[in-house]
Amino acid sequence: ARNSLLYTSFMVYVDLSKQLCSNGYVPKVFMVEDGSGLSPFSKGAICANLAWLTCWPMDVIKTQRQSGNYPSTVSSYTLLKENFVSGKLLRGLVPGLIRSTISNGSSMVVYEYVHVHLSQIAGVSRRDMT
After folding, report:
1. What confidence category does residue 67 fall into, taking pLDDT thresholds of 50, 70 and 90?
2. Burial code of 40-54, b = ≥16 C-beta within 10 A, e = fewer?
3. Helix, strand, coil shares, percent, the chain, to 5
4. Which residues partner with 127 through β-bridges?
5. pLDDT over threshold 50, residue 95
6. What DSSP state is assigned to residue 71?
7. CB-count exposure of residue 75 (10 Å: 0-12, 13-18, 19+)
8. From CA 27, how far away is CA 31, in angstroms rounded?
9. Is-contact 44 108, C-beta < 8 A?
10. Can you tell me the distance from the alpha carbon of 128 to that of 37, in angstroms, rounded to the nearest whole number?
11. Nearest of 65, 62, 38 to residue 50 by alpha carbon
C-alpha cells in the first residue's frame, strides 16, 4: 500500500511541476531548456521527496505499530499526535530525504537517458513519462 501511495504521489507531483514550470513559478536552474518541465535530476529528487513527505507520518506510525512497543488499544491518531509533540515523527527525515535526493535524482537521469536512446533505436518519438 505504501508503494502505491508513493508512486501515485510522485506522479501527481510530476504533473503539478509541469504546470508550475509552464506558469513560471519554478527557477530556470531546475527546468529543462525549453521550460516545459523539471530537469531529470530535479524531477526525480523533488517529486520523490515530496512523495516521501506525503506518506512519512503514516510510515512512522506503521513502523511503530509493527515494533510491538505500543499497545493495540492506542489509536493511530493518538500515536501520530504523541510522536509529533515529542519530535519523534521527524526522526530520520533529513537522512532519508538526502538519500532520496541522490538515489531518485540519479535514477531519473538514467531513466531519461535510456528512454531517449531506446526511443531513437525504435524509431518512435520520445514522450515524457506523464
Report:
1. confident
2. bbbbbbbbbbbbbeb
3. 75, 0, 25
4. none
5. yes
6. -
7. exposed
8. 7
9. yes
10. 10
11. 38
